[in-house]
Amino acid sequence: QIVDMNSPYQDFLAEQTAEILAAFKPVDGIFFDMCWDQPSSSNWAVDAMVKKGLNPQEANDRNRHAHEVAIAYMKRFHAQVIASAPNATVYFNSRPLWNLAEEVPYLAQVEIEALPTGGWGYAYFPTNVRFARTFGKPYMGMTARFHKSWADFGGLKPEAALEYETSQMIAHGAACSVGDQLHPRGTLDPAAYALIGRVYGRVAAREPWLEDATPVTEVGLAKPSLGGGTTQVNGVDEGATRLLTQLRQQFDVVRADGDLKNYRLLVLPDGVALDAATAKRIEAWVASGGRVLASGTSGLSADGTAVVLPSLGISVAGQSAFSLAYSRPLDGFSTGQPATEHVIYDRSVRATPTTAKAIAQVFEPYFERGWKHFSSHFQTPPSKGTGEATATLSERAGYISFPVFSGYTQHAQPYYRELLRHLIERLLPDQLLRVGGPIGVETSVMRQPAVGDRKQRTIVHVLWYPADRRAPNIDLIEDVVPLHDLSVSLRHPAKPTSVYLAPERTPLAFDHRDGRVETRIPVMRGHAMVVIE
Q1: Rg (Cα) of the chain, in Å, rounded?
Q2: Nearest Cα to Cα of residue 460 among 415, 421, 502, 428
Q3: How many distinct structural domains can be found in the chain?
Q4: How many Å apart are CA 197 and CA 142, to the nearest integer?
Q5: Does residue 2 lie in a domain region?
Q6: How far apart are CA 422 and CA 212, in angstroms?
């Protein structure tokens, strides 16, 4: 059962909070958990909605009221804690991170709860940390020592998995939190704390290269207007994070109507709705030197029949009549894809280049598969080429005519990634970071300012912890698999004085040419930190 915050329970919780604040004055902080926007049809909720002129019968009105109740009690409890202990931290957990812009006044920090084997998956943290860190608040990752999720007593996470999860956190500039739950006897599990201690010892050894470090990014990934929940990300978010990570892009998750001055490329994934004012601002930013890449219905009018970003250089004629189609790369396609018809498993927008250039052509199937017409086991084969494009490129904009990001989540079609790679390589030919190795390698770039005797330095994090799908909802990491002779190329105009691996301070040979630092990691086991001073 979920407690109704419309009820007198809210006052009871305020009394409990006052008791805690008095008994432990001054408290270090209060952590309120499970603070959902909880729709309710209780008598208290119905009366409150009626007084506000809302209709309790309408789901949208119930959701709106639930959100207003949550914001009101966050404001109430935050003020209560700060009045008792002005320096205390206050945090409300289980909130949709998409609401941060409204809620940061009531938060001392942002915590990203993500137990990858407990329902969140390994895409949740890297997606949401890139949004949370843009608000200027301290931020941390929160995992747990359990094999599955909270209260999984007797379930101990493999050390390689906890090492990976904390490595992800520090690679993105986040502090680390590893949770546990106390046995009813009030005793700690020595094995659990030995595990946490070993992993935290590894983090502690790296702290000199983590303190005051901030992300270096050049791509802004626009978050769709409707984000994922508090324990999962939606398909667009997950696909975009996976694709951009696999392409070694350094990106933040941003609002399309936010400030873009720190980014060179804005990615509008699949279905980002743009009002007229936002579209105008993006076009002005593109005219001043920015680049934009859109997919699906992003950059189009609400009915999908007009283009609201002229820089895309296309015209559109609504959605395709076919639920899937095929794409053939045209001359100049750079990523080595064979010149054949590659299946696109998702319905496309009918897009035709005007001032842009087509880089891949649409081939339609012979017919839409149905009860009257079908061919063999799966989709209908390709018939003939059309004048429409799967992907286009103009001087400062790229466009993919189908939902490539959510589609990648569903189908993991490598051709989707290669289309995206081609566009990004043309729009950002001098991308910030290039790293060799398997597709699944993760990277980040952090920078520490000069402080005292410490010079300014840039840290490239490289992570490789392959997971196995061992159960329907569990990706397990038990082994740290070494990688050898990994190339690293970072755009860095000034020639560095030294390049080395931290924390061992192992020197690395390097070249500096054409404004880039080129080096190689001889061997890495899970997580390498390349320091450029």
Answers
A1: 25
A2: 502
A3: 3
A4: 16
A5: no
A6: 35
Specify the DSSP class assigned to residue 290. -
Averaged pLDDT of the chain? 95
Type of residue at 315: S
The pLDDT of residue 409 is 95
CA distance 271 to 240: 12
Q: How far is CA 186 from CA 72, 144, 181, 182, 524, in A?
A: 35, 18, 10, 6, 40
CB 159 within 8 A of CB 199: yes
Q: Which two tokens stand for residue 69?
A: 């109740």
Nearest alpha-carbon partner for 145 in 136, 156, 153, 134? 156
Choosing from 212, 239, 267, the residue where a domain stops is 212
pLDDT in tens, 224-272: 755 555 666 678 999 999 999 999 999 999 999 999 999 999 999 999 9
The angle at the Cα of 206, spanning 532 to 499, to the nearest 5 degrees, equals 15
Contacts with 193 (C-beta within 8 Å, 6 or more apart), sequence order: 180
CATH at 85:
3.20.20.70
Spatial CB neighbours of 371, under 8 Å, sequence gap ≥ 6: none
* Boundary residue ending a domain (186, 212, 238): 212
Structure tokens of 404? 């490539």
Give the Cα separation of 258 and 260 in Å (integer).
6
Q: Is the CB of residue 488 less than 8 Å from the CB of residue 450?
A: no
- The per-residue pLDDT for range 314-336, each reduced to its tens digit, is 999 999 999 999 999 997 776 67
Whether residue 225 sits in one domain with residue 194: no
Same domain for 368 and 345? yes
Tokens at residue 528, please? Answer: 């390498």
Do 126 and 235 fall into the same domain?
no
CB 249 within 8 A of CB 431: yes
261, burial (CB in 10 Å: exposed 0-12, middle 13-18, buried 19+)? exposed
Tokens representing 13 are: 């919780």
Task: Please give the model's pTM, rounded to 2 decimal places.
Answer: 0.95
Beta-bridged to residue 427, according to DSSP, are none
Please check whether residues 406 and 438 belong to one and the same domain.
no
Looking only at the bridges linking them, the beta strands covering 457-463 and 442-448 are antiparallel
